[in-house]
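Trying the structure run again after the queue cleared.
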Amino acid sequence: MNNNYFRITAYNPQLDVSYIIDSVGKHETLGQFCVELVKHSRIIEGSSSAQFDDGNIPKAKSSDGNLILRACQKGKVTKRDGIINIRGRYYTPNTGR
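Done. Tokens:
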């Protein structure tokens, strides 16, 4: 698995939209990925590939340096019992790993 695989859940209050987005090989660190998104949205959760369980959103094999939108919805994200859920697409951040 790509060591530069990151997943972020974010919320854009101006548009009232939540989303899960992955970066494969585009950023060297999770921090770089966060900086790109924080200009437009509030970061709810950010994890490297070793810090989350896929849930029903399998990791992408490659993205050719693009960001991959995995899920989106109008309104705020649902996070219950540690599981992030956007319109039935979910994963579990596990930052204690």
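The mean pLDDT is 88. Worth checking whether this holds up in the mutant runs.
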